[in-house]
Structures are given as structure tokens and as C-alpha cells.
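Case study 2.
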Amino acid sequence: MAHILIMGAGLGGVVMAYEMKDLLGNDDKLTVVTKDPIYHFVPSNPWVAVKWRTREAIQVDLAPTFARRGIDYKAVPVTKVEPEQNRVALADGSTIDYDFLIIATGPELAFDEIPGLGPDGYTASICHVDHAVEASERFEQFCKNPGPIVTGAVQGASCFGPAYEFTFILDTELRRRKIRDRVPMTFITPEPYIGHLGLDGVGDTKGLLEAEMRQHHIKFMTNTRLAKVEDGKMVAEEIAEDGSVKKTVELPFGFSMLIPGFRGIAPLRGIEGLVNPRGFVLIDKHQRNPTYGNVFAVGVCVAIPPTGPTPVACGVPKTGFMIESMVTATAHNIRQILDGQQPTHQATWNAVCLADFGDSGVAFVAQPQLPPRNVNWSASGVWVHNAKIAFEKYFLRKMSRGETEPFYEKAMLDILGIGKLKKTTESV
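Prediction:
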């Protein structure tokens, strides 16, 4: 009998629980521990922030589904990870021992690294559904007295797609309210160019997104570092290639949403051999930590080096399908270890992304996510907006049913040549 413990119940954690359960024996035990008992579909947060969705419309109560699948579940935050002792400590004073630990916690949002940033400061966020709900209230107040809007991401961010999405969704909503003409919009980003996305671009994302910015009269600043945020204004620095400050700009705003930098969660930070200095979990090609062989990690909590040096720090995004490929590799590798074999499965890290712009959008496929790539494609159109709506409904249904990849989904992905596991020649 083996006990597998999963930390976190976001996208990576929930899909991990379903896939791992499918591969375990009847005597094996699977436990999920998380601070939040409700799953929210994070890609819909930009819609929540303009009241195109309610939080209830994008959530799934995990407890009944986990119970039906025979997955133990504890909605208590982890306060400390003790890999030497093979256990975690919880906020209620209890501990959980494990044979295998899968870390799927997502990141901690580093609002505190910039004075005035975040929901407790002067800018909104869409990183969590609670933030998105609060952002919707701020936006409603803003619309009563329109003014400048500043959106984008700050240094250290690694999730740029939602920043672009929310910017264009705001533009669409402002036009629907007939007040877009009263709202100058500026997009700031640490990316070296528009459409970099932390991936050095995918297909022609540079051309597509720059064209969208110009068409929608949205000014933009790249290589930008945010110094501080105050009530109604922020100070941004444009950084030169040599790292020096090229220009300092004061940007007034009546409403702002900025993606913060990410770091590992507090219970992980500082554990030598487990995480890097930023608190992200170190893994090998099999998703396994090199120091603690019974610890695996999937999702945004994983340490991935940037695609290359940039004047301002840009992290690498971990998109949904990429995370799912990590999950599949991890589940199969743990199964191999339980069978007395060495792990051989590697995630493809393929990226399939739909970025909604309110009434159109941009889609891209990167195989693998990091260059050089075998497939490097992007396209735009109204179909992207409709496709994302359909995917939202489909994915929430899968989560509520306790499924990960129905046979028809796998068949479609196989036809498109989009796989989750690399074809390797390693012997078992």
C-alpha cells in the first residue's frame, strides 16, 4: 500500500488527482490537501472582473466529486513541508505522512515587492477569483467617472496572456458602455516586445498583438519596470538593453490591473535541494525533484529557466495543456516506481492557448512551449472568442464529473498531433 499526497487543488492538483487515481491499485491511498475546497476555472477570471461571469458560474465543489472517486480530501492549508521526514504540517496542528508527494500549489502572488501594488493597494488583480470579484466592483465605480486605465504585468511576472486578454476585454466592455472615447489606455509589460509572452513569441504573436493594440488605440510600453504605485498614479521605468534606466514615466490612472511577480509559496521557500531561491520546485525531466526522489511537482510551482536574458525579468508561463502534460508524465512515472521500475515518461510541455479579447481573440500552438519548436503557430479571429466559451463549459463539466481526458478528446488531439508525453527510447 502506498500513500500519495497532492498539495493543491487548482488546475494541476485536480487533474493530477483524477489521473493518479486511475493508475493506483485498490490498496493505495490518495489524499488531496488544499486551502480552498472550491475549484475555480482561472481562465474565466477576466470575465468575472467585468461581470460577464459570476464566481458561481465558474466553480466546482470538489468534495462530492472526490468522495465519488474515492479520493481523500482535506481543506486545510499546509504550513510546512518536511521532505526529510516524508510529511507535511497543516494549519490545524495535524500532520500527514506520505510515500509520494506531488506539489501542485501554484504560486504565491508577490504584490508586496512593489509599493502600492495589488488589491490591498491601488491596483486590481485577476489572478484569483476573489481578486476578480473585487476588480469588478472597482471597475463599476470607475465607469461612473471614467479616466485613464493602465493594465499589463510587472517585473517577475510569468503569466502574460491574461494581461492581454483583460486589456482587450476592458476595451470591448468600455465600447459597449459607450465610454471608450473617455478612457485613454496604456499597457505596460516587462516583455522585450509585445507578444513575447515569456516564450520569445509564438508564431506571429508580435505582429498580431501589436496590430490589435494599434487598432484599439492602446498605447504600450515594453522593457518596463514598475517602481511604485500611489493613489491615482504610478511610476514606471523603461529599461535599456544594458539594464540602465532609459526613461522614467509617471502614469495617471483611474483603474488599473497589473499581473504581479510570482514566487513559491511560503511552506516551500528556503528548503535546500527542493526549491530555487525564488521558491519554485526543482525538477528533472521526469517531474521529480533531484534531491528528494519521492517528491514530484507540476504546474506553476515548477522552476523553469527563462527563454533567454531580457533587460527586465520575465518568467516563463505554464499554460493549461502544458500543465496537463506534466500531470500525465508524473502519474505514469509514479506508477512505474510503484511497480519497481525506473521512471521513463517525459512531458511534452506543448502549449495550446486561447486568448479571448471580448469579441475576437488570438490562439497559438507551441510544440514544445520553449523554443526551438516543432510547431510554432498563431492565428486570430472571432472564432477564438467562441472557442474559449465552449472550452470553459467543457472543462468545468469534466472537473465536476471527475474526468481528465475522455477518449474522444484524446482521439482529437492525436489527429492534431498534440500529445502529452514525449516519445522516448528509454528502457523501463
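The CA atoms of residues 158 and 317 lie 5 Å apart.
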